[in-house]
Amino acid sequence: MKLHQLRSAQTILAQGLNMTRAAERLNTSQPGITRHLQLLERDLGVGLFVRSGRRIVGLTAAGRALMPIVHRILRGADDLQRVARDHAIGMAGEVTVATIHTHARYYLPRSIEHFVRDHPAVRLCLLQGTRAQVAAWVSGGEADFSVASAPAEAFPDLAFHPCYNVHRLLLTRHDHPLAGYRSVQLKDIARYPLITYDHAAGAWPEIGRAFDRAGLAANVVLGAMDADLMKTYVRSGLGIGIVAHVAYDAEVDIDICALDCRHLFPQTQVHVGVRRGDALTRHALDLISLFAPSLARTLSRGAQRPRARRT
């Protein structure tokens, strides 16, 4: 049996048993794909498809048992070509990461700096959006993987692998009354104008629910997706801010006081999102290994197949 025969059988099934569409998909003739199938069934010694006249109308019992194996063989062949291609092109390639602003701005820069230095011929692209947008980009093939919390929407074709946890900080100016508190409470925060994540951001529901459960109303005067913007308005005296802990650097943000709020708001788990059944390229795995080495090893062991980018 030949790989092109297996691919013809796979394509017939994928095209809803329509021989004409399968032939068009494979850029061949209908008699040619029919011949591929006949030769494959002869080599296997069993029929894969049920026929009604010249039409294929379903899978035989043998076909139902064998087609999953056909899929695995073709995925293995695709992986073989991908790995060989990676080695043939050396360091050249492209990696697209979908993420939200907080991780792009604060969590990934050091890893990206090392990656760009070690992979000068690889083009790296960052797509920034909301949690749902980030997941949709990976699901649609526009990005290799995502770095973000799992979205509220269901994406059954994606697998989300835990990477690290984010907790919340309360930011104030050093002259603010709360700056001297050793342990701030929700009722203390509710007394002052608040700057935090926009309602469209995935972090807001967790923050808002904490106030709701305590029977308090947060006095939100500014909602934003960008923690740098929040810090700018905290500095200006517009209000106090709630941000992810990775957005605060004590050596850089010396004019802002940070109070730990992990006892008030639940931690958020950040994931690396990938398409189920798809293989990450060597370059994508190299980048993940810089900020999540154990996860990169896990992903590299997965029996996954590469995907074609959608344009």
UniProtKB/TrEMBL annotation:
Protein name per the record: LysR family transcriptional regulator
UniProt entry tagged with the keyword Transcription regulation: yes
Domain HTH lysR-type: from-to ranges: 1-59
Keyword presence, Nucleotide-binding: no
Parts of the chain that traverse the membrane: none
Family (UniProt): Belongs to the LysR transcriptional regulatory family.
Record's keyword terms, sorted: DNA-binding, Transcription, Transcription regulation
Pfam families: HTH_1, LysR_substrate
Matches recorded under InterPro entries: HTH-type_LysR_regulators, LysR_HTH_N, LysR_subst-bd, WH-like_DNA-bd_sf, WH_DNA-bd_sf
Leader sequence segment: none
